[in-house]
Specification:
124 residues, mainly alpha
Length: 124
């Protein structure tokens, strides 16, 4: 019985060490992204979302990221079934030259980030 407990502890420790290492790698990646200027200035909604993701419970963050991936995948399936995938690609390219569209997308991203933060923080 003690042997099984020791194996479980060792596996748990290895899993925690793996998670910590992945979080450190993710944090280093986000530092690079921030240094390259891809994110809004410190204190903005998207920056706060990144901070929540980096510092919240990794299990809860993983659940939220999986939820987001499922949602995006589902939306892509719906768009594809409606034959609208090419329109999305077109709008994505257009977004870089159309300031009105870009502003609408930025607002939607911020709203989504706020909802996501709420999901993460209310689960802790």
């Amino acid at each position: 019985m003690n042997f099984e407990r020791e194996i479980n502890r060792a596996m748990s420790k290895a899993s925690n060490e793996d998670i910590e290492q992945e979080l450190l790698s993710a944090e280093a990646l986000w530092q690079q992204v921030q240094n390259d200027g891809f994110l809004e200035p410190e204190g903005g909604v998207l920056q706060k979302w990144v901070d929540v993701i980096l510092h919240a419970n990794p299990n809860i963050v993983c659940q939220e990221l999986q939820r987001i991936l499922e949602l995006v995948t589902l939306q892509e399936e719906v768009l594809s079934s409606l034959g609208a995938s090419s329109r999305v690609d077109e709008l994505y390219r257009q977004m870089h030259s159309d300031s009105t569209l870009r502003e609408r997308i930025e607002m939607a991203k911020q709203d989504f980030a706020i909802q996501s933060m709420g999901n993460i923080l209310s689960s802790e």
